[in-house]
Amino acid sequence: MTVLALVELDGAEPADASLRALTLARGLGDPSVAAVVFADSANVPTSALAGYGVTDAYVIEPGSLHGYAPQAWARALAGLATETGTTAVLAAGTDRGHEVLAHLGAITGLPMAANCTHVTPDGGQTHRLVRHRWAGLLLEDAVLEAPLALVTVATDSVAAVPTETPADIQLHVHKPELAEADLVVRAVESLAGAGGASLATARVVVGGGRGVGGPDGFAPLEELAGLLGGVVGVSRVVTSEGWRPHKQQVGQTGTKITPELYLACGISGAIQHIAGCAGAKHIIAINTDPGAPILAHADYAVIGDLHQVVPALAAALREGNKEG
Ligand SMILES: Cc1cc2nc3c(=O)[nH]c(=O)nc-3n(C[C@H](O)[C@H](O)[C@H](O)COP(=O)(O)OP(=O)(O)OC[C@H]3O[C@@H](n4cnc5c(N)ncnc54)[C@H](O)[C@@H]3O)c2cc1C
Questions:
Q1: Is 107's pLDDT higher than 90?
Q2: Torsions phi, psi for 88 (to 5 deg)
Q3: pLDDT mean over 287-310
Q4: What is the pLDDT of residue 195?
Q5: Is residue 64 over pLDDT 70?
Q6: pLDDT band for position 192 (cuts 50, 70, 90)
Q7: Res. 179: pLDDT tops 60
Q8: How many CB atoms lie within 10 A of CB 55?
Q9: How far apart are CA 18 and CA 6, in angstroms?
Q10: Mind listing the domains of the chain with CATH numbers?
Q11: Per-residue pLDDT at 197
Q12: What is the pLDDT of residues 141-163, one digit of tens each?
């Protein structure tokens, strides 16, 4: 049986969140997991996908689908699901993964289960699931009954694990049948400075909280994020104050992040914030308060004023880059 997995790209590589989704898909796709990639066929990272057990990569080239068009992507997945006779469609629990699978649920009239950590086929049209509720504060056991299981994967709870032996992978160019209405919503360009890695998939996130002091205080954090090849994330205080847009919020009511490094600057570490960053591999806190709750979650901490520490870090990195 084939299982289809939507794979998002981060530059030329599969996004880390998608590799996590592929790892979970392998557990239920025996013997085959097929990836669906929206890109030029020359840009499909086939060897990286093969390393995660993908045997078939269906590429949907830009053409009329130029940009990100959630309903059209879902329509393409629906067509492929029928063609391949798949039993499940998975995506990473990112903004795009959730949005596309929600559209797929609407198109097919089937239920969709979000933020799953375990999915086990249980015979017939049944899958047993464990999934996050309340931003992962609660785990729910659930049964999904549907001819096609639609599942997003809780990216902060499933590790990306390559296979021991890469699969033999075949590339197929798929041309979806789309209606005009499928293309009504399309994101064809990003604002300057909004490109690069998304918060959900970034390998480095530099977080800023109330301690940053105001909207103007974020320039050094932006610079540091740029030097580390990462992006800026923020606490809810920051978005509530209107210092930064909500799409940058990390937490229970924001984005869940799974970077290699989360540098939390001037963030106290409220439980609702931790719900969004607990999946980070390493946390470094910069805080003036040695009793701040974030310290209980941090691997390292700098007790100090971020307005001094962050520029000093950036200067050291700039210097290191010059020497390197
Ligand atoms: C239903 C609900 C959902 C929520 N969802 C979210 C969510 O998704 N994400 C989220 O973040 N919050 C969320 N919150 C809010 C959360 O409870 C906290 O209020 C919020 O996270 C606090 O933000 P903060 O850490 O920036 O601010 P504060 O708690 O005020 O902490 C500021 C920190 O900065 C430090 N500091 C101050 N000045 C400096 C300096 N110069 N240098 C270094 N450190 C300094 C202080 O010591 C302090 O630790 C939610 C709350 C509720 C009720």
A1: yes
A2: -155, 145
A3: 98
A4: 45
A5: no
A6: very low
A7: yes
A8: 17
A9: 7
A10: 2-191 (3.40.50.620), 202-323 (3.40.50.1220)
A11: 59
A12: 999 999 999 999 998 889 999 99
pTM: 0.77
Residue 193 has pLDDT above 60, yes or no: no
Structure tokens given for 219: 């320039």
What's residue 127's pLDDT? 96
- The residue nearest atom 29 of ligand 1, judged by CA position, is 268
Which residue, by CA, sits nearest to atom 6 of ligand 1?
272
Tell me the pLDDT of the chain averaged across its residues.
Answer: 92
- The binding-site residues of ligand 1, defined as CB within 6 angstroms of any ligand atom, are 209-211, 235-237, 249-254, 266-268, 270, 272-273, 276, 286-289, 292, 305-307
- Sequence-distant (6+) residues with CB within 8 A of 67 are 186, 187, 188, 189
Measured CA to CA, the distance from residue 116 to residue 158 in angstroms comes to 9
| Strands (DSSP E) found in the chain | 2-7, 9-10, 13-14, 32-38, 54-60, 88-92, 112-121, 126-133, 138-145, 149-153, 170-173, 204-208, 231-234, 261-265, 282-287, 300-303
Distances (CA, A) of 159 to 46, 162, 187: 20, 10, 30
Tell me how far apart the alpha carbons of residues 93 and 83 are, in angstroms, rounded to a whole number. 25
Question: From CA 279, how far away is CA 281, in angstroms rounded?
Answer: 6
| Helices of type H across the chain | 16-28, 46-50, 70-84, 95-108, 219-227, 236-240, 271-277, 306-323
Contact 86, 80 (CB under 8 A): yes
Name the residue at shortest CA distance from atom 4 of ligand 1.
272
* Atom number in ligand 1 closest to CA 209: 26
